[in-house]
Amino acid sequence: MSDKSSYLSVNGVKPCGMSNGEVKQPFLIGVAGGTASGKSTVCKRIMEQLGQADMDHTQRQVVSISQDSFYRELTPAEKAKAERGQFNFDHPDAFNEEFMLKTLQDILAGKKVEIPSYDYRTNSLCPDQVITIYPVDVVMFEGILTFYFPAIRDLFHMKLFVDTDSDTRLARRVPRDVNERGRDLDTVLNYYLNYVKPAFEEFCSPTKKFADVIIPRGADNTVAIELIVEHIRDFLNNRIARSQEFNLPLAATKPKKPDNISPLQRLH
Ligand SMILES: Nc1ncnc2c1ncn2[C@@H]1O[C@H](COP(=O)(O)OP(=O)(O)O)[C@@H](O)[C@H]1O
Ligand SMILES: O=c1ccn([C@@H]2O[C@H](COP(=O)(O)O)[C@@H](O)[C@H]2O)c(=O)[nH]1
C-alpha cells in the first residue's frame, strides 16, 4: 500500500452534482516538485486549512492523488532491473501517460474514477487495492512529473511547484527510503546519484516555468499556503454565486436545501 494513502484519495461520498443536475467540475490543482520536496505535505496542509483533515474520509470534499499510482506495469526484465536498483523511476517513460490523462479527464467530467495503490517496497502497483475517487470540490494531483506531459499540464486550474533545496530533499529522502521503503543506505545513495538527481535536472526542474505559484521551502511556507487556500475558497465561492444566479427562477418554487451544499462550500 502506498505510504501516502493515510490522508489520500479514498472518499466514499456519493457523486455530488449541482442542484440543477449540472455536473460539478472540481477545481483541479497540479502540484509538482522534486522528490521529497514536500509535495504531499503541502497537499496535507491545504486540506487541513480547508477544514478537511479531521473529517471522515467518506465526507471529504478535497482529495489528493499521487502520480505514483500511474507508474506503468513493468516487463519481467524491467522488474529484475528495478530489484537491482537499475530501473529509472524518475524518467517520464516510467509512467502510464494515457491512463493518467484519461483519469484526470474523467475527474474533470465529474465521473467516479478508480486508481491503484502503489507499493514502493515491491516497485509495483497493487491492482487489488483500488482507490475509488468520487466527485468532490477540489482535487490535488501531486508528483515529480505532474507538469511534464503537455496534455496533462493543460488540464490544471492551478499549478504549484514545491521548490525545496536539493540537499534538504536528499536528507529527507534517505531516511524515508531506508525506514519506509525498505532499502539500504548504499542503494539509496547510488540510486539518487545515478537516476534521481539527473532526471530531476532534465525532466522535473525545467517544468517549474509552467507553475502559477512556486512555493519555496514547501510546507514551511505558511504564507504561500494561506494565499493558495484563499484562492481556492474564492474559486469555490464564485462558482456557488454563479450557480445560484443560474438557478434563480427555480429557486422561487424550490428553495435550495442546505443539504445540497457540500461541507466545503458551507465554510463561507
Ligand atoms: N517542512 C518540512 N519539514 C520537515 N520535514 C518535512 C517537511 N516537509 C516534508 N517533510 C518530510 O520529508 C519527507 C518527504 O515529504 P513529502 O511531503 O512526502 O515529499 P514529497 O511528496 O515531495 O515526496 C517526509 O518524511 C515528510 O514528513
Ligand atoms: O518503485 C518506486 C517508484 C518510485 N520511486 C521513487 O519515488 C520518487 C517519487 O516520489 P516522491 O514522493 O515524489 O519522492 C521518485 O524519485 C522515484 O525514484 C521509488 O523509489 N520506487
Note down, in words, how this protein is organized.
The chain has 268 residues and is of the alpha/beta class. The protein is 37% helix and 17% strand. The strands form two sheets. A five-stranded parallel β-sheet has the order 2-5-1-6-7, covered by helices on one side. The protein has a two-stranded antiparallel sheet with strand order 3-4. Residues 35-36, 39, 68, 71, 89-90, 120, 123, 144, 196 line the site of ligand LLZGTKA7. Adenosine-5'-diphosphate binds at residues 33, 35-41, 172, 176, 218-220.
Describe what is shown at a glance.
The chain is of the alpha/beta class and 268 residues long. It is built from eight helices and seven strands; from the N terminus they run βαβααβββαβααβαα.
What gross morphology would you assign?
A: globular
Number of helices in the DSSP assignment: 8
Q: What strand line-up does the widest sheet have?
A: 2-5-1-6-7
Low-pLDDT stretches are: 1-19, 248-268
Give the helices and strands as they follow along the chain. Answer: EHEHHEEEHEHHEHH
* Ligand inventory: adenosine-5'-diphosphate, the ligand O=c1ccn([C@@H]2O[C@H](COP(=O)(O)O)[C@@H](O)[C@H]2O)c(=O)[nH]1
Approximately how much beta-strand content do the residues carry? 15-25%
Global mean pLDDT: 85
